[in-house]
């Protein structure tokens, strides 16, 4: 079975659905999609309070105050933020007040401390404040009963600020998908261990767990399972309890030990199409278990696994989180390098792209081979070459998929 990239992505997006929303503590909701309208139960400010450190006064007492004509008032008390005192400002008196402290009854204005001698028994004031000067009035920011956030808003720091300020400790939001990442292959060893003959470090499970986290998911990196069919199937069934989505790598091409494909094909719920792309040709996608958890079986070549994530898994995760657009947007740019591209396959070429006065410019990095991982760290974009283009010259217009993420 041979599919285009778009057909495969459609098949994937047609199968995954948005996760149901539930109540979450505020800090767990950062980056998530809000699934309720938020109506404030309180006014902001909640009470009239001082905008300055200074003195709460009756403005009329200070008519004509100036450097030449200072006016002294007795200080009858002190108001601090967080404390409420039963003191009243009567004509001819004042209260020392700190920023955020409630306005005392009787006062209609605040004199900043800079306009005074800072006295604590009596204070000498050299400027007349307007009525309402340096006073923050109850409800001037947000009135109780007003909608402060609309559903379908992604919660970033500014939205979290408003939620906390109106006293919300929890909100209904679409959760982060829990993504289980498993790498398969008898040649794989954990980074940090010693390599024997023919062995390599498992980079894919780290790459893909990092990708999943970067896309906003919770990643569980299970690590390496060798090419034993029973161990692979046991691991999958053990992991399903905590998975909203599973990613495996390796074992999906034509080799004698490509066990993932062999075993999962038997279930009948996972397809293994060849997708007309380079890298990333051997793909697998379907569902497993009673809960029909989506599973991606990505190719083992490290760059193929990474690009497959960007092209197929990331959009699926975004759909599960209810976050549009699902696909990365493409921007126009110019390639500074020429290269050839396979006929009939969409090529994704690693590139370092910069944006300047002339728009986006991209240089290729790291070579074309899907095992060439060394240059990947310098790439921040993929040049997307259409299926019908076989040759790209330096200076050609191209489309770029920019790879920035939550942490990128
Ligand atoms: N006869 C054919 N051979 C291959 C074909 C084909 O169509 N016919 N397709 C090639 C393509 S394209 C790809 S991509 C790979 C996909 O292979 P598998 O998904 O079966 O992956 P493996 O064979 O297990 O490994 C491929 C390669 O990647 C290395 N690898 C695997 N896992 C990891 C890991 N976790 N970390 C780092 N590197 C990993 C592995 O050692 C192999 O070198 O098949 C081609 N062959
Ligand atoms: O498609 Mo493979 O993913 O080219 O290396």
From TrEMBL:
Keywords: Magnesium, Metal-binding, Molybdenum, Molybdenum cofactor biosynthesis, Transferase. One of its GO terms (molecular function) is molybdopterin molybdotransferase activity. Its EC number is 2.10.1.1. It comes from the Bacteria. It catalyses: adenylyl-molybdopterin + molybdate = Mo-molybdopterin + AMP + H(+). Pathway: Cofactor biosynthesis; molybdopterin biosynthesis. Its cofactor is Mg(2+). Residues 180-319 form the MoaB/Mog domain. Pfam families: MoCF_biosynth, MoeA_C, MoeA_N. InterPro entries: MoaB/Mog-like_dom_sf, MoaB/Mog_dom, MoeA-like, MoeA_C_domain_IV, MoeA_C_domain_IV_sf, MoeA_linker/N, MoeA_linker/N_sf. SUPFAM superfamilies: MoeA C-terminal domain-like (SSF63867), MoeA N-terminal region -like (SSF63882), Molybdenum cofactor biosynthesis proteins (SSF53218). Belongs to the MoeA family. Catalyzes the insertion of molybdate into adenylated molybdopterin with the concomitant release of AMP. PANTHER family: GEPHYRIN, MOLYBDOPTERIN BIOSYNTHESIS PROTEIN. This is Molybdopterin molybdenumtransferase. It comes from Kribbella aluminosa.
């Amino acid at each position: 079975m041979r599919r285009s990239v778009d057909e495969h992505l459609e098949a994937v997006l047609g199968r995954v659905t948005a996760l149901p929303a539930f109540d979450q503590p505020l800090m767990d909701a950062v980056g998530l999609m809000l699934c309720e309208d938020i109506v404030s139960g309180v006014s902001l400010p909640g009470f009239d309070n001082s905008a300055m450190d200074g003195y709460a006064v009756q403005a009329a007492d200070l008519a004509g105050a100036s450097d030449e004509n200072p006016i002294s008032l007795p200080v009858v008390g002190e108001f601090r933020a967080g404390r409420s005192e039963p003191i009243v400002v009567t004509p001819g008196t004042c209260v020392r007040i700190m920023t955020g402290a409630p306005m005392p009854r009787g006062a209609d204005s605040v004199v900043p401390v800079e306009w005074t001698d800072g006295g604590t028994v009596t204070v000498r004031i050299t400027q007349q404040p307007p009525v309402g000067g340096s006073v923050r009035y109850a409800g001037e920011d947000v009135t109780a009963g007003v909608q402060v956030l609309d559903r379908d808003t992604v919660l970033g720091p500014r939205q979290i600020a408003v939620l906390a300020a109106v006293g919300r400790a929890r909100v209904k939001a679409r959760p982060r998908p829990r993504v289980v990442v498993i790498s398969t292959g008898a040649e794989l060893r954990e980074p940090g261990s010693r390599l024997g003959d023919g062995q390599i470090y498992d980079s894919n499970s780290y790459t893909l767990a990092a990708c999943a986290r970067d896309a906003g998911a919770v990643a569980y990196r299970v690590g390496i399972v060798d090419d034993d069919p029973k161990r692979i199937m046991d691991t999958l069934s053990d992991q399903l309890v905590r998975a909203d989505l599973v990613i495996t790598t390796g074992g999906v091409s034509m080799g004698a030990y490509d066990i993932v494909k062999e075993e999962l094909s038997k279930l009948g719920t996972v397809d293994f199409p060849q997708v007309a792309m380079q890298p990333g040709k051997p793909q697998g996608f379907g569902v497993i278990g009673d809960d029909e958890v989506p599973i991606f079986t990505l190719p083992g070549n490290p760059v193929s696994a990474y690009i497959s994530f960007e092209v197929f898994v990331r959009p699926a995760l975004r759909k599960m989180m209810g976050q549009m657009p699902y696909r990365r947007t493409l921007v126009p740019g110019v390639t500074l390098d020429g290269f050839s591209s396979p006929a009939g396959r969409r090529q994704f070429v690693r590139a370092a792209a910069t944006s300047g006065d002339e728009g986006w410019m991209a240089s290729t990095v790291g070579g074309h081979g899907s095992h060439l991982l060394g240059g990947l760290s310098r790439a921040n974009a993929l040049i997307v070459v259409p299926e019908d283009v076989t040759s790209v010259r330096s200076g050609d217009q191209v489309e770029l998929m920019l790879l920035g993420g939550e942490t990128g």
